[in-house]
């Protein structure tokens, strides 16, 4: 067959049905098979497939025969790709056709080829190097179409090179002529009564779904909404090891929660014992996960004494609880693991200050040039890298033994230690930090974790594991745990068990590029884990995904460890939702005071423009200094706001929503949250990454960390992302490629009104 032709009414139906946005849905897979194999398939109530000798048609009951999107499959090979890519190509092509028919402007991934009627469509997320293109002719057979008052488009070529060749029109003309002989009335029969319960999603139901699709809707409702990939994971009979990978907004946490509830329900039905533990990184996310388990049918299992139970906890909470009376609440830095690590960083910073004041002058004569150069970096960044050194190497792998520490193999991108004196110098700073903890009678999170690791490695504990160990473990956001914490997990299970199910997105890790996916699998005793992937992203729009992918692709070109989970992802948004979205934009103001003033004005503008609460617009300062200055401005200008002070703090978000307040969150704390729009402040070349005395490993670390943080900030948004910058500065180098590619635009008209 030589063509696939879709008339304009069918085009509009396809882009507006949620179940057709990804091949992860059953209906989307059927549609992909129709395109790949050019055969009939039943994927929609409103769109039918008609096969002819020359090609196939996708038609509605009342087709618009004068306006069609035609794929010449004799030369176009896009539908020979994998199913998800096929759906992405189709959806992006249909959206481009609608823009042309409705005379709407082009997006950055639709590039006009000068001197021709051709458009190069880039359907996939941004990657470095040459991009795959689909070539559309917006005026094929122009004179003939104009005489007949027709407006059909032809997609005739694809590949990594751009062409301006004139397309062959034989298949296009066949598609245009043969449609007139098709009797569409007989294709559509009257709906039967039981079709009201059909699994198809009608177009007029799509917007209702968007409004009602919340994570607390209950398991029975979620069954109807999950993609096939999600269903495969959620309803798997496997106890692991399983890993669920996916980009931000792909539904990893929710899928893990539903998997937990489903497996507990099944154990109850079969009258089998199942003692589960669900581990998360912070208390704020723990509370949210408990609420989600309860609202999706698992309330009876939470902390139950019955046959089936689940304990939701942070790892630090579990460690403290199971160390008996050997540690009091006053003896650990903070009961929240994330906050504990932040306090740990402050004490390490104090130890470094002590070292520079009292010891550096003497040490500088003995240490290597590499370490001397490292010490010329910004003090705070030295502290961040030293925190990783202490946790992973000195406390974790060396057990605070100097000789073992010097003999350990080292990863890339860590402290540059070349000589014995280098190791002794770093160990002396560690001793200052440790002395500080001892004087205050405090234990850090590594002390607690490593003590628990030793405790759980004893013969007594191993015997207790037989009766008290967990049958299965669920771990959310594994990328947030360090190597010590990862080492402990499998000791919580029954002996010889590796029943661990976990989620992971390395691109959201907070700058710790020394731990790889293989390291995680090894520490969890899950090297043979079955890997599940989620491609459809339900949070973010196409424009936001492209921007985030560009940021990660730019970072991946610099850092081998920085993964780009968006490379094969697509937006799950329908055209109805996409109407609320636009290309990310930049507002520039003259100075910092004007930037802060414009930020709050922009939040009000977006709230009114999108039709959302003010609290659904997240304001994200790029640095702590900007965060502090923004809060000071808000106080003086009487701008009431809620500040997110804990990672994934849904309580703060709820409080802001109740009172319709502005909401501000530092980049370290906003992971796991979701907002309709995000405003990022301070993405200027002189501010982000922060311009200090960077060099060597510290420069590498802070740049890597900045790419991570920017990706997390961008992917909190569903519909719109905006940046507010200073006119006197260039845009941050992290966004230069995105600007060059047209994935961000300057909106001077809006800037002048704010």
TrEMBL record:
Keywords: ATP-binding, Helicase, Hydrolase, Nucleotide-binding, Plasmid. GO terms for molecular function: ATP binding; DNA binding; DNA helicase activity; hydrolase activity. The keyword Ligase does not apply. InterPro entries: DNA_helicase_UvrD/REP, P-loop_NTPase, UvrD-like_ATP-bd. Signal peptide: none annotated. It comes from the Bacteria. Residues 227-508 form the UvrD-like helicase ATP-binding domain. PANTHER family: ATP-DEPENDENT DNA HELICASE SRS2, UVRD / RECB / PCRA DNA HELICASE FAMILY MEMBER. This is DNA 3'-5' helicase II.
């Amino acid at each position: 067959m030589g063509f696939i032709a879709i008339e304009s009414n069918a085009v509009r139906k396809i882009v507006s049905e949620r179940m057709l946005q990804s091949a992860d849905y059953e209906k989307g897979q059927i549609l992909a098979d129709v395109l790949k194999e050019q055969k009939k398939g039943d994927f929609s109530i409103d769109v039918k497939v008609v096969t002819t000798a020359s090609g196939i048609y996708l038609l509605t009951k009342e087709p618009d025969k004068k306006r069609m999107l035609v794929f010449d499959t004799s030369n176009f090979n896009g539908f020979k790709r994998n199913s998800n890519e096929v759906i992405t190509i189709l959806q992006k092509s249909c959206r481009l056709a609608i823009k042309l028919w409705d005379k709407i402007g082009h997006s950055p991934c639709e590039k006009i080829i000068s001197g021709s009627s051709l458009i190069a469509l880039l359907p996939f997320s941004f990657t470095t190097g040459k991009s795959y293109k689909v070539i559309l002719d917006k005026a094929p057979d122009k004179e003939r179409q104009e005489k007949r008052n027709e407006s059909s488009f032809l997609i005739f070529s694809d590949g990594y090179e751009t062409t301006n060749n004139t397309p062959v029109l034989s298949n296009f003309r066949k598609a245009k002529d043969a449609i007139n002989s098709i009797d569409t009335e007989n294709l559509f029969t009257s709906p039967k009564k039981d079709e009201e319960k059909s699994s198809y999603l009608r177009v007029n139901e799509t917007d209702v779904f968007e409004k009602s699709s919340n994570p607390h809707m209950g398991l029975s409702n979620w069954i109807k909404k999950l993609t096939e990939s999600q269903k495969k994971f959620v309803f798997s009979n496997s106890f692991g090891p399983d890993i669920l990978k996916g980009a931000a907004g792909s539904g990893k946490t929710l899928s893990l929660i539903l998997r937990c509830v489903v497996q507990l329900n099944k154990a109850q039905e079969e009258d089998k014992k199942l003692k589960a533990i669900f581990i998360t990184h912070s208390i704020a996310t723990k509370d949210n996960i408990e609420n989600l388990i309860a609202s999706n049918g698992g309330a009876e299992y939470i902390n139950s004494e019955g046959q089936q139970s689940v304990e939701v906890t942070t790892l630090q909470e579990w460690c403290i609880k199971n160390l008996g009376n050997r540690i009091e609440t006053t003896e650990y830095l903070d009961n929240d693991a994330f906050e504990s690590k932040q306090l740990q960083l402050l004490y390490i910073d104090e130890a470094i200050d002590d070292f520079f004041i009292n010891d550096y002058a003497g040490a500088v004569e003995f240490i290597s040039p590499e370490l001397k150069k490292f010490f010329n970096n910004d003090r705070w960044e030295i502290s961040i890298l030293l925190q990783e050194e202490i946790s992973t190497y000195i406390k974790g792998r060396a057990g605070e033994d100097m000789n073992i520490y010097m003999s350990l193999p080292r990863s890339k991108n860590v402290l540059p230690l070349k000589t014995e004196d280098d190791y002794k110098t770093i160990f002396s700073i560690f001793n200052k930090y440790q002395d500080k903890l001892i004087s205050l009678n405090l234990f850090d999170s590594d002390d607690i974790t490593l003590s628990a690791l030793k405790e759980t490695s004893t013969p007594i504990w191993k015997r207790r594991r037989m009766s008290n160990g967990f049958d299965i473990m669920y771990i959310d956001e594994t990328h947030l745990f360090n190597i010590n914490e990862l080492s402990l997990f499998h000791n919580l299970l029954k002996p010889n068990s590796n029943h661990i199910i976990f989620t992971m997105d390395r691109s959201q890790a907070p700058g710790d590029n020394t731990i790889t996916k293989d390291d995680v699998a090894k520490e969890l005793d899950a090297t043979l884990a079955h890997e599940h992937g989620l491609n459809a992203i339900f949070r973010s729009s196409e424009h936001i995904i492209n921007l985030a992918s560009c940021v990660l692709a730019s970072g991946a070109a610099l850092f081998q460890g920085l993964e780009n989970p968006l490379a094969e992802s697509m937006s799950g948004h329908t055209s109805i939702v996409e109407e609320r979205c636009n290309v990310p934009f930049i507002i520039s103001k003259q100075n910092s005071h004007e930037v802060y003033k414009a930020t709050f004005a922009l939040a009000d503008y977006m709230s009114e423009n999108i039709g959302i609460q003010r609290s659904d617009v997240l304001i994200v300062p790029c640095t702590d200094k900007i965060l502090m200055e923004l809060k000071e401005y808000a106080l003086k200008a009487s701008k009431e706001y809620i500040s997110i002070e804990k990672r994934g703090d849904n309580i703060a978000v709820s409080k802001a929503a109740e009172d319709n307040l502005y909401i501000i969150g530092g980049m370290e704390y906003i992971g796991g949250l979701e907002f309709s729009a995000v405003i990022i402040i301070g993405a200027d070349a002189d501010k982000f990454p922060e311009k200090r005395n960077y060099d060597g490993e510290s420069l590498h670390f802070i740049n890597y960390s900045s790419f991570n943080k920017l990706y997390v900030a961008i992917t909190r948004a569903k519909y719109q992302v905006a940046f507010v910058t200073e006119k006197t500065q260039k845009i941050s180098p992290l966004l230069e490629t995105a600007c060059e590619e047209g994935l961000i635009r300057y909106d001077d008209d809006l800037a002048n009104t704010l």
